[in-house]
Amino acid sequence: MRAVVQRCRRGSVTVAGEVVGAIDHGLVVLLGAGRGDTETDVAYVVDKLVNLRIFADDEGKMNRSVLDVAGGVLLISQFTLYGDTRKGRRPAFVDALEPGPAEALYERAVAATRAAGVTRVATGVFRADMQVELVNDGPVTILIDSRKQF
Known about the structure:
Layout (H helix, E strand, L loop, with lengths): L1 E14 L2 E6 L2 E7 L6 H13 L3 E2 L5 E3 L7 E6 L21 H17 L4 E4 L6 E16 L5
């Protein structure tokens, strides 16, 4: 499972002209499931993202997590995180998990993020054409891969 985690001042997802998920201060997370991913991958990624110390403490150092600052998390499914661009110019998505199992793992990640104590969890709509807006704070962008490929 892969995640692009962005610290934000605010973020939102719009589908068909309607805002379906929004947060203020917190994390916007693009989340993709790959072939072979399991609950173990979900647990790893969620634990990392809710405990990443990327928010400033009283001295301005990145030393607090989204839990510490009572921030929100906006989770957005994105299979294109598994796009392979090593050959040609069109990405191949053969390593992305099929939609049915991918949606189940995405929903599990949403539930696990809530269970971890995040006070505000918002989502996009799985397989929808979404418009994502965010004000990246910093900017701070972190990549997480449950298989530790990067």
